[in-house]
Amino acid sequence: MRKPFVAGNWKMNKTIAEARSLVSEMTPILGGITEVEKVLCPPFMAIFPVGALLQGTDIGLGAQNMYWEAKGAFTGEVAPGMVAEFCMYIIVGHSERRTYFSETDETVNKKTAAALSAKLIPIVCVGETLGEYESGRTAEVVSRQIRVGLKDLDPEFAAQCVVAYEPVWAIGTGRASTSENANAVIRDFIRKPLSEMYGEQTGQSVRVLYGGSVTAANAAEFFGQPEIDGALVGGASLKVDEFVAIVQAAAKRA
Ligand code: PEP
Q1: What integer pLDDT is reported at residue 203 of this predicted model?
Q2: Predicted confidence band at 254 (pLDDT cuts at 50, 70, 90)?
Q3: Which of 29, 43, 171, 249 could form a disulfide linkage to 219, CB 3.0–4.6 angstroms apart?
């Protein structure tokens, strides 16, 4: 049985004061929804103050990015062990990192392996662009992102990864995938290659999320699909009512 999982990716939004206020409003309601693993991923500067407010709750804290090296002369970067001092989760390979910061399947692989070594749970993002979708290349792109991005992981820890299927054309556009399409992509191009790489048990036990214009209005439809275990939520995670309603919809899946 895979526990439902909902993570909020705040991206580059919220000052420390704004982050505190958002979390203070969300925490009392989210804390009561115990059927769902809930994670907030604020920007780096707000990690510590948000973490302080989450202490004593069952709401997890995640970062949005990190470097794979343990330490050294990498100005501006943050090491896995530094993230792990405050967080349990790390988003890896978000499409905005791939697009604006030249991340590749190979760097995603290094970060995923480094995250697991640091005892972080990586939330690994995959998904095709609009051009790839329209030219019928979803299968090729998503299965390659899985095969390369998650290759050669310690088999003992591979099942701890969370994968987010986020078609790039659906992120922040208001144009979500259909739930049937997302379910089929996850079944055929995420779980299947994972099963081939790490065995059927791992392929079936990894939590796989859908991300891309998830809202309170459409969340239940996604969570009604057998392969979709939750959501990675961008814009709607910045609104208390929306995010709470998405988590409540995930709880019904439990
Ligand atoms: C995201 O950034 O991962 C995302 C899914 O964004 P949105 O929900 O705004 O589409």
Answers
A1: 97
A2: confident
A3: 249
Cite the beta strand spans of 42-149 per DSSP E: 59-63, 89-92, 121-126
Band of the pLDDT at 9, cuts 50, 70, 90?
Answer: very high
Q: Rounded to an integer, what distance in angstroms lies between the CA atom of residue 5 and that of residue 202?
A: 17
Position 35 pLDDT exceeds 80 = yes
Structure tokens at 113: 């392996």
Beta carbons within 10 angstroms of residue 156's beta carbon: 10
Q: How far is the CA of 42 from the centre of ligand 1 (A)?
A: 13
The residue whose CA has the least distance to atom 2 of ligand 1 is 234
Residues 216, 241 contacting (CB under 8 angstroms): yes
Nearest residue to 97 via CA among 64, 129, 121, 123: 64
Q: Whose CA is nearest to atom 8 of ligand 1?
A: 234
Name the strand (E) or helix (H) holding 211: strand 207-211
Domains of the chain: 5-251 (3.20.20.70)
Atom of ligand 1 nearest to the CA of 233: 8
pTM for the full model? 0.98
How high is the mean pLDDT of the chain?
97
